[in-house]
Amino acid sequence: MTDQTPDTMLEAAAQAEKLGKIREGVTAKGVKWQVGGEALPLAQLTIPKGVTILAEPGRMVEMDNDIDMHASLAGKGLGGAFKRMIGGEGLALVAFDSLADGQEVVISAAIPGEIITRELKAGETILCQPGAFIACEDSVDVSFDRKFRPFRTLISGEGLLMQKITGPGLVMMAAGGVAHERVLQPGEKIRVSSGKIAYYDEGVNLSVEVVGNLATMVFGGEGFTVATLTNNTDKPLHICTQSTTARELTAELLKSVGAQMQTSNLLEALR
After folding, report:
1. What phi and psi, each to the nearest 5 degrees, are found at residue 266?
2. Tens digit of pLDDT for each residue in 161-175?
3. Which of 1, 39, 156, 183 is deepest in the core (most CB within 10 A)?
């Protein structure tokens, strides 16, 4: 990257204004990151020489010239990649190797919402729903939870297998709509609507609880079950929920398209 001039500084300021409220930070490896935007956020990462960023395929928006982009098996070897495939993800991630200092790559989320960032300590693990992972430093291990709990995860709306992400390093995840991060104190429990869990720390127990009745399901649209997150440890743990999901967004879009088609057909019939 070249040194900043007044023109480039003005350009950066204009870009920051477009992105709206910006969150930023620097990782232990020296990766500078900025996340901004409203409904469709972007993440800009400035990468030192010799550092690699891994991202889901299709998430790159732009990158500098001195970045080598190539496919990299996800997880630790073929075993980790195979577990990702079972969970509905691809075998490989896209690696961005910085060949010079200050190289930038810009990535985006797949659905409208927020980009969540966490810098994990060595051995620290979080679990997130399939499709939530966007990018991370290459020191982070991305695989799937070995605990196969199809009834619990499917009924709770979180997919067949939860993604398991272990530090050290920066990880970026997508949350649909608005993300709500909070800390669960030891012994604390909350109930979450189906599919609305973005991620939670390892140690939080996910279970399914029956609530309501037939009238609740038919007229309230909430179903019979909710996901329950409980901190059974002796230390505070983080969780994050999301205000909407890709499934809900798709359903609303199809409903809108269907209504427009019905209106169009009616108008055509009245001609």
Report:
1. -65, -45
2. 788 899 999 999 999
3. 156
